[in-house]
Amino acid sequence: MKENKIAPSILSADFLNLGKEIERIEEANASFIHFDVMDGSFVPNISFGMVVLKSVSKIAKIKIDSHLMIVSPISYYQQFYKLGSYNVTVHVENTTIDEFKMMASFAKENNKSIGITLNPETPIEQIIPYLNYANIALVMSVKPGFGGQSFIENSLEKILFLKEYREKYNLKYEIEVDGGINAYTSKLCRESGSDILVAGSYIFSSTDYKQKIKELNNENL
């Protein structure tokens, strides 16, 4: 079972000490900073946006992985790249295939990464046309909008589907999983074929970030 890259979601971080929090996850060997963008319309919550991203990108030593849970990602994705995101992930529910091709072309021209995701209730088949152009396929294992939710078990079937589809058609995207990730569910995801795990409260509720990140790749837990 291969080790996964870990992307702590700073939605669960201490925002009074955000700079220090980012330093701590970098020292704990995180691979990405996961940056959740919510507009209060596409999802029932509001988080943060470009002003915070601009500040985070000034101090970040690892790549920023931005997840746009917003109504019109085609209107904003370039700005998220230009302000420091390495990867930008958008939703199949509100992004046409032509829009995604445009985004993928921009990402490639600028040596960036593009991701596609879907809500838990959306059939996995809807993501298929996008996979030829994606660098990341993100499985939402909770309903987007809030942290601290429990892992949705049938997400494992989607991870396995994406793994088998990638192998069948010799595609190169990485499989990312976001929501309800802890030591137990991380093992299930890795067994199913995940490459990147997003974890928020599991890491930031602890005093030892390095240990928590290590636990997410521990086969013995």
Strand content: 15-25%
How far is the N terminus from the C terminus?
A: 13 Å
The string of secondary-structure elements, in order, is EHEHEHEHEEHEHEHH
Helix share bin: 25-40%
Mind telling me the C-alpha Rg?
Answer: 16 Å
Question: Describe it for me?
Answer:
By secondary structure, the protein is of the alpha/beta class. Helix content is 34%, strand content 20%. The protein has eight helices and eight strands. It has an eight-stranded parallel β-sheet. The protein is globular.
Short description:
The chain is of the alpha/beta class and 221 residues long. It contains 8 helices and 8 strands; from the N terminus they run βαβαβαβαββαβαβαα.
Descriptive keywords:
about 220 residues; alpha/beta; eight-stranded parallel β-sheet; 8 helices; 8 strands
Write the layout of secondary structure elements.
Blueprint: E1 5-8, H1 18-27, E2 32-38, H2 50-59, E3 63-69, H3 77-82, E4 85-91, H4 97-109, E5 113-118, E6 136-140, H5 155-169, E7 174-178, H6 183-192, E8 196-199, H7 201-204, H8 209-215
Parallel strand pairs: 1-8, 2-3, 3-4, 4-5, 5-6, 6-7, 7-8
